[in-house]
Design a protein that fits this description.
The chain has 290 residues and is mainly beta. It has one helix at 273-284, and strands at residues 16-21, 23-27, 31-37, 48-56, 66-71, 74-82, 84-89, 94-98, 102-106, 111-117, 124-132, 143-147, 154-156, 162-167, 169-170, 173-174, 185-191, 196-200, 206-218, 221-224, 227-231, 239-255, 263-265, 268-270. The model has no long low-confidence stretch (mean pLDDT 93).
Length: 290
């Protein structure tokens, strides 16, 4: 825990542009989840492609998991709030995602993987975020990292706000993962009632906050549990500022847009239809398993 952090001053905080209530759906072998970011928001929230929230005490909602499936052209970031999930992929990687941990996978030119629960009862909850890769990196070698709970840097502010820095940096504390092109910021913020939190953020970044417990006041807009607030892109803005309403937990995500064409076909995200056709062909002939 870092208590000697640098305070961040925000003088022109962003406003809430739009509140999003996710759509209930299912994926994998029938896992129930809420899709907060889908293809309709990909250009607005570039470089982020998708965000799913999952959470249930009922094993039937998650027990079938996500059997073998392919990806190409982007990164998946799975943050486990509570539960246990086993990952295996065609590159020979295997890991156990546990409470408070993160699975960061770069699909690159192609990988086949599975994500299956290692629990038969109890609560499983978390988020999966898809982060786009720049065109020059879409065909890079697949990469995978299991980040355990204790490997994620944390800080506590003077108002007793706990911040888990998954990616980017907050108050001078560098996160577990850095990316040069998209420069993702990914914070899990735990705020006591009435506490305020500020985070510096370049005006060029797209950003959003998702409340998963409690509520936040963001420049006069109340963001309730289960809602995603898209933050505006005012050219003079220098960060985010909000206040907790009750004990509150939320994720704050931001990133530099790539401003490239986005062509998606299911688990493949490329820059052209021709590249999508090539991905389908490569998958069908077994190239992803190499």
């Amino acid at each position: 825990m870092n208590t000697n952090h640098q305070a961040e001053v925000v003088t022109r905080p962003r406003q809430v542009e739009h509140l999003v209530v996710g759509q209930e759906t299912s994926d994998g072998a029938g896992v129930k989840l809420t899709r907060l970011l889908d293809h309709q928001l990909q250009k607005r929230l570039d470089p982020f492609l998708m965000l799913d929230a999952f959470g249930s005490d009922e094993p039937g909602d998650y027990i079938a998991g996500f059997p073998d499936h392919p990806h190409r052209g982007f990164e998946t970031i799975t943050y486990m709030l509570t539960g246990r999930m086993r990952h295996r992929d065609s590159a020979g990687n295997e890991g156990l995602l546990q409470t408070g941990g993160v699975q960061w996978m770069t699909a690159g030119r192609g990988v086949i993987h599975s994500e299956l629960p290692e629990q038969e009862s109890g609560r499983m909850a978390g988020f999966q975020l898809w982060l786009n890769l720049p065109a020059q990196d879409k065909m890079c070698a697949p990469w995978y990292r299991d980040i355990q709970r204790e490997q994620i840097p944390e800080l506590r502010t003077e108002q007793d706000v706990l911040v888990r820095v998954i990616a980017g940096a907050s108050h001078g504390v560098k996160g577990a993962v850095q990316r040069a092109h998209t420069q993702p910021l990914y914070l899990d913020i735990h705020s006591p009632d009435g506490a305020s939190f500020t985070q510096a953020l370049p005006a060029t970044m797209n950003a959003f906050v998702v409340v998963y417990e409690g509520a936040l006041q963001v420049q006069g807009t109340r963001v309730a549990a289960g809602q995603m607030a898209i933050l505006n892109n005012a050219p003079e803005s220098d960060g985010v500022q909000f206040q907790a309403v009750g004990a509150t937990r939320a994720i704050l995500v931001g990133g530099q847009p790539l401003h490239e064409a986005i062509v998606q076909y299911g688990p493949f995200v490329m820059n052209s239809q021709q590249e999508i056709m090539q991905a389908i062909d490569d998958y069908r002939r077994g190239a992803f398993a190499a």
